[in-house]
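question for whoever is on the cluster today: can someone run the full assembly for these? three chains, 987 residues total. i dont have access anymore since they changed the login thing
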Amino acid sequence: MAGGTRITETTQYLTFMLHKEVFAVDISKIREVLEFTSVTKVPRTPQFMCGVINLRGSVVPVVDMRLKFNLEASEKTVNTCIIIVEITHDDGEVTVMGALADSVQEVMELEPSQIEDPPKIGTRLRSDFLMGVGKHNDRFIMLLDIDRIFSPEELSTIQAAA
Amino acid sequence: MAKIMTVDDSASVRQMVSLTMKGAGYDVVEAVDGKDALAKLKGDKVDMVVTDLNMPNMDGIELIRQLRALADYKFVPIIMLTTESQATRKQEGKDAGATGWIVKPFKPAQLLGVIKKVLG
Amino acid sequence: MSVEIDTSAFTEEAYELLSELEDSLLELEESPGDQELIGRVFRAMHTIKGSGAMFGFDAVAEFTHEVETVFDMARNGTISVTKELINLTLAARDQIRAILDAAGGGSPANEENAQRIIAGLRGLVPGAGGGAAGGAAAAKGKGKKPVVEAGPHSYRIRVKPHADIFANGTNPILLLNELREMGESRIIALTDDLPDIGALDPEQCYLSWEVFLTTEKDENAIQDVFIFVDDECDVNVRLLDREENLSTDAEPKKLGQILVERGDIDQEDLEEALQPLGDRLVDAGVVGKDQIRAALTEQQLVQEKREKKKKAEAATSVRVPSDKLDNLVDLVGELVTVQARLNQTSASVGDHDLQLISEEVERLTAELRDNTMSIRMLAIGTTFNKFKRLVRDLSLELGKKIEMTTEGAETELDKTVIDQLNDPLVHIIRNSIDHGVENPKDRLAAGKPEEGLIHLAAVHSGASVLISVADDGKGLDPQFLKRKAIEKGILPPDVELTDKEAYQLIFGAGFSTAEKITNVSGRGVGMDVVRKSIDALRGQIDVQSELGKGTTITLKLPLTLAIIEGLLVEIAHDFFVLPLAAVEECVELSRDRVANAHGRHVINVRDEIVPYIRIRDRFGIEGESPEIEQIVISEVDDKRVGFVVDRVIGQHQTVIKNLGKNFEHSEEFSGATILGDGTVALILDLQKMVRFVQHEEAEENSGGE
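^ ran it for u. tokens below:
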């Protein structure tokens, strides 16, 4: 079954842009949004693993969302930002991670009726990465299952072919 | 492991010194007198020299003096084997540049103690 | 109230002595003739008896007296040390413990048991009944010469080699090392005579030292260190802790007083220059900075000694909840990071005063860090020793003969890790004794020595500690393990398993390979506890086994709160930290040197061929390498290996931050650290890197042709 749990409550989402598409993450998952700072690349890890940053004394990994979704890479701009999210693992452990996005848009509220199950095809995204697709002012918003996308299995850093 | 030369005209002393040092893991080069020692040392650098004083051809004091004149052996530890009655010889040896001494007869443990002392 | 504190001091000491006693007895069992060990056992008994009586533990004193009496005869050679004596004394040791436990609120000690032990001990005395023997021993004891109290003393040793000391092949460092080995020491180098670099003759010795040594040895032993350099070195030894110096009522000596007494200055100099004393003295050129430093150290030492004495008079230790310590360690970690930033900022601002402050903070931070870490670090030896008894009792119970050896008892580990290691290690050792080591008959039949061996070892490896339990028993049979797992329905019948995976099965819940259940193990609980505890410590378990030869279980544990000394290096614009402990030297690698090696990655360092790894290539870092690169030569797995970087920046106090789950597979890094400017640098795990490279090269070579 793709799509995971159905959304049954009105929830606030933070929307952000990746390659001219709008994505959103449940706002309760988000800790803060940072301007792009220098990221230390960890060698011999997959391309989408940007590296690590210093978040007030903690070392936090950052994932390039474009590359993770197989979109083309882009130059950093003044709008480029790192969204700091809290990921809950299967074993209940919480880790903090960063998601590199083109820009942050707005916080919006979506009712369950505005959300549809993720379509199995047509989104160019793996359907299990989505919690659903929201509709807002005639635009589609990809609601991401961030726990799933940032799970260790997905981010497994087994050395990428050099 | 450090390499040590033992110089003595007495085969039994040489053997005892040599066995003791080999037992402790050192590489050992043997020489029968000062002349032999100098010849062997020119081709083969050692980390320490243990020499008797009374030897034919070239005695220990002369050997120490000549070694100290060589750039390679200027600061290498040199231990001389003396007997109780040789107090003046001991001073001569020190003046020639010996690092320390062991009074004969000695036990293997004493020898190793002295080696550790000057070689680390 | 005061009584309570006092008794706890006694019981604490007594428990310690009892565990020492146990170790000594077990050692004595192996070498029954060892007078020193007999002496040690006797002394432990004697101290327990003496202080027991003083603290009102009459039951302990009375009972211990009986045991001591018999052991005194062993000491005097009247009776010999037999297996029986050892067994009885061990039982007695347990009995004393029971009495102590009872006094501390535990269940009352078994009085009959005590009588039995005493009767047994008296039975060992030839001819006479117990009472008479006791009397004889007591009389003998009184006739003995009073022994001078041996306790450690503190000395100040001034070592001033003559300038030409090197000419006789003497290395003064070795002399200092010898002193250092004699006890607890602090060494201060006096560098005031050091000329400017232009005027410096490298074949002359300009340094002298002041050594503050606290040792059990006497002054003669100290003088003996300098026996060969009588004419080439001035040595002055002075006892520091004479009673008047240490009497707790007297004020500790003032700095000036000490300088005067030491002959560094005279009374006039002192009075002229009283404030601020140190600076003024230095400015006036009366004494050098180092002399002041040495005098200060002396002052400190005497003060510390007094503190110690005071402490011994009052309580012996303070118990603190460990989360308070955790907090402290976190804060120190933060402080170290901030300090690095202060350092960098003050260097770039170039303000001299600021730099002085920064240096001072750096010194304090380092001291604070070391102190904090040392509070939490314990040697694993105490834990190892506990297992000696376990092995002894268990092998006896199972009718096996097993010797346990240990290695690396001095390896220090965080206290929490040690505490949590106890249970898993007990299970592993039990398992080895029960399942691993065969009974004597089978061993002989298999052509092995009758006595089995269990080897416990601890060693630091990068940012980890490896603790291994090795036995020379029958080893694990992967086929058997697999069959068993399938039988129990843990694995599907058609499963494919490597040997390594099969070994890991023993850590599964409800998995027992024992054919028959013994008292010890075989119920399938135990080894899964090991897995859980080690997981909780974020450690790893590695099992190696050879059928018929034995099994080695290695626990790899991270140093949880590691702050390490690192070497900061740069490649392109990326920074990395290498653990400084492994670094031996840095040499330059020029392009011609690379060309001369004909494509092989080796370099000749003083006639030794050292292979090197180009980190730039390994990590695929882009850009051109500089004309001259640096090779950091480190010792990895007992071999010298070079690591090529663009630039070596310098020493860096490194707070290790975990890279987290997502980089679990990036094993070449043991973590990350935050630099002074806020960027993150990765910490290299050199050992892992070398192993990966070796592995990859081996594969290339085998598959390439």
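summary bc i know u wont read the tokens: The mean pLDDT of chain A is 84. Residues 11-155 of chain A form a domain with the OB fold (Dihydrolipoamide Acetyltransferase, E2P) fold (CATH 2.40.50.180).
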